[in-house]
Write a structure and sequence with these properties.
Elements (H helix, E strand, L loop, with lengths): L9 H5 L7 H15 L7 H14 L2 H11 L23 E3 L4 H15 L11 H6 L2 H21 L6 E7 L9 E8 L2 E7 L7 E3 L2 E3 L7 H16 L5 E6 L8 E7 L2 E7 L3 H7 L9 H14 L4
Parallel strand pairs: 1-2, 4-7, 7-9
Antiparallel strand pairs: 2-3, 3-4, 5-6, 8-9
């Protein structure tokens, strides 16, 4: 993934600077292919990323186009705007809360503090500004974008689904302890985490690992899910972590049960199918039980 606030550039993936000549660029690409090829012990996800980087800058025309776009405005980073009327008039999922809202607000506060008081900041989402910001700020914006992307997907699931965004799951009022989304539908009740670590990830003993993965995101997700389950008196069917398509191999990876909860990691493009089919080992929900769970959650849920 090369369009994220925290992702490496195509040049960084290939291990060169942006002013490298074409021959050296070609040598770097071949070296990175050997280093990352799965047959020689490399990481398959990184291998795919190297190939994608070469597609972006491997020819003079592609490289020129990429270089022109690197400093261009990226509208998808800006604050979400009201969408135009949809041609599709089918009922959408019931949604509550503002996806990515808390992280958007936090990013705006932090970026203004970082720039400094009295400094004019006409566009806090300017790509050059974002790229130069500390990693903590870029991660904040990247996660907001990830949450918004998930929200767009689940909204199209249809009227059989209800979704709550930015749900307070704290014990002491810390807004960081939140569930990005809760999704309720015929396939089950799921706690959903939307993440963007800025690059390929791996798995170890039921947890997500990677160069930029801090803490234990799966364990933390399950813990926050339990807070809501106890408070609302409901039983979750499973937990789901959503990642950008380029950062995970395969549409769905089942991690098995983590603290008794079935967990799956899914790419954004595979999320809709997973929520319709359900996570492996999860319990379906239907009839009056679905109505009862929705009522309990609606009474309990508080947004950050």
């Amino acid at each position: 993934m090369f369009d994220s606030p925290v992702s490496a550039s195509a040049y960084e993936v290939l291990g060169v600077t942006a002013d490298v000549d074409d021959e050296e660029l070609r040598r770097a690409y071949r070296l990175r292919l050997r280093q990352t090829h799965p047959d020689t012990g490399g990481d398959a996800a990184v291998f795919v990323q190297v190939q994608r980087a070469w597609e972006l800058i491997g020819t003079p025309d592609a490289r020129a186009s990429y270089d022109r776009g690197r400093g261009a405005q990226a509208p998808e980073w800006s604050a979400p705007r009201a969408s135009a009327p949809r041609a599709d008039t089918r009922p959408r999922a019931r949604t509550h809360g503002q996806p990515g809202g808390w992280r958007r607000e936090r990013y705006l506060t932090l970026v203004r503090e970082w720039v400094g008081r009295g400094v004019d900041l006409p566009d806090p989402y300017d790509p050059q500004l974002v790229r130069s910001a500390p990693h903590e700020l870029r991660r904040m914006l990247a996660d907001a974008l990830a949450e918004e992307a998930t929200a767009r997907i689940v909204a199209d699931l249809g009227m059989g689904y209800t979704v709550w965004h930015d749900v307070d799951a704290s014990r002491d009022g810390d807004p960081e302890d939140k569930l990005d989304h809760i999704v309720l539908g015929p396939s089950g009740l799921y706690a959903v985490l939307s993440e963007d670590f800025g690059g390929p990830i791996g798995f170890r003993r039921g947890e997500i690992v990677g160069a930029h993965v801090a803490g234990a995101p799966v364990t933390e997700l399950v813990s926050r899910q339990r807070v809501i389950a106890r408070a609302a008196g409901v039983r979750f069917s499973g937990a789901i972590v959503v990642l950008p398509d380029g950062d995970v191999l395969g549409a769905v990876t089942d991690l098995g049960k983590v603290r008794g909860v079935p967990v799956a990691v899914v790419s954004q493009s595979g999320l809709s199918t997973l929520l319709r089919q359900g996570v492996t080992g999860a319990r379906d929900i239907g009839g009056t039980e679905l109505f009862d769970i929705r009522t309990r959650l609606q009474q309990r849920v508080r947004h950050v």
